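Researcher: I've got a protein sequence and the SMILES for zinc ion. Could you write out the 3D structure of the bound complex as structure tokens? I'd like something to compare against our soaking experiments later this week.
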Amino acid sequence: MPTYEYICTKCGHEMEAFQSMKDEPLKVCPTCRKRALKRKVGGGAGLIFKGTGFYITDYKKKSGSADSPSPAKSTETKPAAPTAAK
Ligand SMILES: [Zn+2]
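Model: Sure. Here is the predicted complex with zinc ion in place.
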């Protein structure tokens, strides 16, 4: 029996319900008695979508500069330089 997570969009109440796939999703919040319950699908899929969008925006910025290989090289030479000076 799958466990469904619900969140109330009115009062923010979160709850879990054991339901079969055939059961209709719950709608009425047990706390505020409003029909504002929303079923969370796959444990917060909406959040994952938001995060992906953020990442894509960040990636575009980085590819615009196109200087990713040179910082990696300078990091490699940095530890060797102080040792050679001393
Ligand atoms: Zn509520």
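Model: Confidence is low (pLDDT under 50) at residues 43-51. The domain at 3-62 is CATH 2.20.28.10 (Rubrerythrin, domain 2).
Researcher: Great, I'll pass this along to the crystallography team.
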